[in-house]
From TrEMBL:
TM ranges: 15-34
EC number(s) per entry: 2.8.2.-
Cystine crosslinks: C344-C356
Upper classification of the organism: Eukaryota, Metazoa, Chordata, Craniata, Vertebrata
Subcellular location: Endomembrane system; Golgi apparatus membrane
Name of the protein described by the UniProt record: Sulfotransferase
Length: 399
C-alpha cells in the first residue's frame, strides 16, 4: 500500500503534470515565435524619417540600410522553406514559357500562378522564392495592388528587366505573369491583389505581363484600378522582336509554316500580313495611341531592349529614377557572361550566386532571308518614326 502510494501518482496529480508540460511547451513555442519576429535579441537601427538637412547624408545611409535590411528580413524568414521546393523539376514543370500564350488552359494557369506566388518562385528563372503564407502568419507587411507594371512588349526583354529590378530592396514583384488585365479580369481586384507578394511600407509592388501592351481593354482597366499606376514598356527592334516571337512559337510547335510564309499575305505582291500577331505587336505607335487615351506620356517609361543588353545598369538607372527610387542597382551588379552572351546578375535577389536568365531567353534565331528582313524594315519604318516622335527617344532601329 505504502509502496503504491510512493510510486504511482493519483489521477489528479498526473493530470496536473500533463497540464504543466503542455503549458511549458506552449510557452516555449511562443518564445520561439517571438524570437523569429526578431523582437528579442539584437537591436537593429531603424529608419529615421525626421532627419534635418544636417543629418541628410546619414539619414540617407540609414534609409538604405533600413530598406536593405527590410528585404533581407523578409527573405531570411523564407529560408526555412524545405529545399525540395527549389528542386529543378518543380521549376521546369511550371515554366512561364510553357504557359500557353493564346489558348490558355485557365485552370492550369491559375494553379500555376498560385503555386508560383505561394513560393514566390520565378517561374522562368527559378531564381528566388518567397513564402508569403509564412509572413502572413507572422503578420508582417500586406499585399497591395501593383503601383508599377511592366506592360510589354512580348520578347522585348521584360523578364530581364523584372529580374534585375527585383534586386532593389524597395521592389517586390510577382514571379509569374498574372495576365489579370487581359485573361483574368473577371476574377476581380481581390484575386489580383492576392497574387502579389507582401510588401512593407515604402516598397513598390510590381508585376509584368507583356501582352497588356497590345490588349485593347488594358489601359481603361488599369486606369480604373489606379490612374497613378506607373507603366513600363520594354521595346525592341520590331523586326528582331517578330523573329524572336516566331522562334518561341517554333520551339513549342516545330510544324508551323516558315517565317516567310507567315509574314506575307501574298508573297508575289509582297503584301505583309498585319493580322499575324508577330507582325502586329511591333506596330508600337498604334498600340501606344490606345494607352495615351488614358495615361499621360509622363507616366509611361520606355526601356530600350537593346540597351538593356548593352548597358543594363544605364537602363536600370532610368527605371529607378522613374519609380522614384534611389539608384541602388548599378554597374556593380552585372557581369557579362560569355557563354550566355548576355549580361547576368552577380547575385540574384535572395541569393549570393551569379544568375543568368534561363535557356528560353536568348535563343538562337533561325536565319531569315535578308530580302524579307529588308521588306519588314521598310514596312515598320514609318511606324517607328511615329513612335520615336511620340516618345521623344530615337531607338536606332532604322539607322
Ligand atoms: N540579360 C538577358 N539575358 C537573356 N535574355 C535577355 C537579357 N536581356 C534581354 N534579353 C532578351 O529578352 C528576350 C525575351 O524577352 P521577354 O523576357 O520579354 O520574353 S517574354 O515576352 O516574356 O516571353 C530574349 O529574346 P531572344 O534573344 O529572342 O530569346 C533576349 O534577347
Amino acid at each position: 500500500m505504502a509502496f503504491s502510494r510512493v510510486f504511482s501518482d493519483p489521477p489528479s496529480k498526473s493530470i496536473f503534470k500533463t497540464f504543466a508540460i503542455m503549458l511549458l511547451s506552449i510557452l516555449a513555442s511562443l518564445y520561439f515565435l517571438h524570437c523569429l519576429t526578431e523582437r528579442c535579441g539584437t537591436c537593429m537601427p531603424t529608419e529615421r524619417r525626421d532627419a534635418g538637412p544636417a543629418e541628410g547624408f546619414y539619414a540617407m545611409k540609414l534609409k538604405d540600410f533600413g530598406s536593405v535590411r527590410r528585404k533581407r528580413l523578409l527573405q531570411k524568414r523564407t529560408s526555412t522553406r524545405p529545399l525540395v521546393m527549389r528542386h529543378h523539376s518543380l521549376h521546369q514543370s511550371v515554366s512561364a514559357e510553357d504557359l500557353p500564350e493564346i489558348e490558355a488552359d485557365k485552370r492550369m494557369f491559375l494553379s500555376r500562378v498560385k503555386l508560383s506566388n505561394s513560393l514566390n518562385v520565378d517561374l522562368e528563372t527559378g531564381g528566388s522564392y518567397f513564402d508569403t503564407g509564412k509572413l502572413s502568419s507572422l503578420g508582417e507587411g500586406s499585399k497591395k495592388l501593383p503601383q508599377a507594371i511592366i506592360i510589354g512588349v512580348k520578347k522585348g526583354g521584360t523578364r530581364a528587366l523584372l529580374e534585375f529590378l527585383r534586386v532593389h530592396p524597395d521592389i517586390r514583384a510577382v514571379g509569374a505573369e498574372p495576365h489579370f488585365f487581359d485573361r483574368n479580369y473577371e476574377n476581380g481586384l481581390d484575386w489580383y491583389r492576392d497574387l502579389m507578394p507582401k510588401t512593407l511600407e515604402g516598397q513598390i509592388t510590381m508585376e509584368k505581363t507583356p501582352s497588356y501592351f497590345v490588349t485593347r481593354e488594358a489601359p481603361s482597366r488599369i486606369y480604373a484600378m489606379s490612374r497613378d499606376t506607373k507603366l513600363i514598356v520594354v521595346v525592341r527592334d520590331p523586326v528582331t522582336r517578330a523573329i524572336s516571337d516566331y522562334t518561341q512559337t517554333l520551339s513549342k510547335k516545330p510544324d508551323i509554316p516558315t517565317f516567310e510564309s507567315l509574314t506575307f499575305k501574298n508573297r508575289t505582291t509582297g503584301l505583309i500580313d498585319t493580322s499575324w500577331s508577330a507582325i502586329q505587336i511591333g506596330i508600337y505607335a498604334k498600340h501606344l495611341d490606345n494607352w495615351l487615351q488614358f495615361f499621360p506620356m509622363s507616366q509611361i517609361l520606355f526601356v530600350s531592349g537593346e540597351r538593356l543588353i548593352s548597358d543594363p545598369a544605364g537602363e536600370l538607372g532610368r527605371v529607378q529614377d522613374f519609380l522614384g527610387l534611389k539608384r541602388i542597382i548599378t554597374d556593380k551588379h552585372f557581369y557579362f557572361n560569355q557563354t550566355k552572351g548576355f549580361p547576368c546578375l552577380k547575385k540574384a535577389e535572395g541569393s549570393s550566386k551569379p544568375h543568368c536568365l534561363g535557356k528560353t531567353k536568348g535563343r538562337t534565331h533561325p536565319n531569315i532571308d535578308p530580302e524579307i528582313v529588308q521588306r519588314l524594315r521598310d514596312f515598320y519604318k514609318p511606324f517607328n518614326m511615329k513612335f520615336y516622335q511620340m516618345t521623344g527617344r530615337k531607338f536606332g532601329w532604322d539607322d
